Amino acid sequence: MMAAAPGALPPATDRGNLKGSTRNRFYGLIRAVRADVQDVQASIDDLSGAESTSSRFAELILQAQGTMTRNKSQIQGKLGDLSSLLDDDANLSNYGSDELERIRNLRLRIVELWDRQSAAGAIAQTLPALSRLSKDLVYTAGLITIPQRVNEHLASYRVGQSLDFNQQFGDELPDAGQRKQMLEYLYSHPLAVQGIVDVPSGLIYRASPRPARRLVSFVLIAAAAVTGALIFGIVLPGADWIPNFPEVAPNTLVVAYLFALVGSLIHLAADALKQVREARASTTAQFLAVDSWALWIHVRELYFCAGVVFVGIAAFGVIATTKRTDPLTMLLAGYSWDSLQDIFIPRLMKSLGTRSEALVSEVKK
Predict the structure, then answer these.
(1) Order of strands across the sheet with 203-206?
(2) Which domain holds residue 294?
(3) Residue 159 in contact with residue 301, Cβ under 8 Å?
(4) Rounded Cα gap, residues 44 and 265, in angstroms
(5) What are φ and ψ of residue 164, in 5° steps?
């Protein structure tokens, strides 16, 4: 049993004598072995696309034989270097010995099957098995290297920014089915990557590993909500500069705004329940907001901050147009904020544009 999930090899400072240079060489050699096997896979694909009785197939056999011979010695040398790294470092051996042994076994099966069937003149019948073995080897190598590479990419992303896994790792895992399998693996090992894995979309959202940074997300959202309450309680009451805005007491406006926020939370809860129902009907692993709500809020901090602003705009628009501030109306306003913003924001922009033009004309006089 390994001490860490494949691909989740911790930094050198967390693992005694596991030096950064040793770790980097380990990952580099695994990626090099994967690239060599993909070279073999390309030859297998070329053969699979040719008629086995054609002269083209005979030419491809000779080319593939050369590729196999060349890569056999190259891969053997790299596997030897990897074994030396594991022998010299107990922590590294504890982490990667199982996957390395599987890679070695798959490589031996590929070589033995090719040599045996090549000598018997039966390569065409063996191509599906060779392709399956080489893809398995590529995937096994990816279990070790891809989570580390995902974290390297995410380290340069802001919180909440998404990494398109299929686009970034299409070269390392050309098979779409294996990319989905890898995403499901990462989803089931959440500590392997610093983000939220959404399997259906193929996206990985950046999350900070630092608890203090995650707490900042809640502070930002709370600050946006408090700012909105201050605007409703201080700026809007008696704002005769807003056409047709009703005369409403400050406390009433603040309470109306708070009910609108509650309505938006009800909307979020309804969306979360809908997500659960869809996940039950799906065979694909999906991240559920209700399972890790704190992490989801952290990753979507900009969305929630913007949502607080839009809820405020929706509440303001409903009060200005209906002259109503009762709790039910404001709950509905908050619940429907995403629909109402499509109505009120264009009106607001139009009004601001008209007033801006009037101001410019007045200044020019």
Answers:
(1) 162-164, 203-206, 195-198
(2) 211-364
(3) yes
(4) 55
(5) -80, 100
Task: In whole angstroms, give the CA distance from residue 196 to residue 209.
Answer: 11
- Average pLDDT of the chain, as a whole number: 85
pTM of the shown model: 0.75
Cα 208 from Cα 151, distance rounded (Å)? 11
Mean per-residue pLDDT for 273-296? 68
C-beta separation of 7 from 146 below 8 A: yes
CA nearest to 225, candidates 312, 345, 314:
312
If asked whether residues 115 and 239 sit together in one domain, one would say no
Do 8 and 54 meet the contact criterion of CB atoms below 8 Å apart? no
State the distance between the two ends of the chain, measured CA to CA, in whole angstroms: 82
**Which band of pLDDT confidence, cut at 50, 70 and 90, is reported for residue 355?**
confident
Q: Domain tally for the chain?
A: 2
C-alpha span between 68 and 37 (Å, rounded): 9
Residue 197 forms beta bridges with which residues? Answer: 204
* Angstrom distance (rounded) from CA 127 to CA 131: 6
